[in-house]
Amino acid sequence: MLTERQALQERLEKIDKDETAMIKEYQKQRNKIFERLRELDREEYKNLPDLKKLASLENHQESKPEKDIRKHVAVNILKVYSDGMSADELRSKIEKETNMQIVNMTSFMSSIMKKNPFVQKPRRGYYRFIKM
To answer: Is the pTM above the cut of 0.70?
Structure first.
């Protein structure tokens, strides 16, 4: 014959087993859900554009003729101002004349100086055209 104490202990053990089984079942379901979410994320990432390709497109958005026009205008402005001018003044004149913005004046002028030895930078932020 079972005593009440033994019956309660058996019931607790049964509850423990059921609880453990439920926890395992929830863990399986949770793992399946996480795996499916990972699969969906992988599919979504496959559809994203390649960042290297996007970066290369950004670098080549500005067409070469536009750059050449700005460079030609810069050299002509420096020819007119024989004493030279500051980079800020030169930038504003180029942008006003061409309606095109110069993002990095230093690299823009460096590219001009590489191709045209008469354009010089005697000091920081100052450019001039030397006539020979």
So the answer is: no
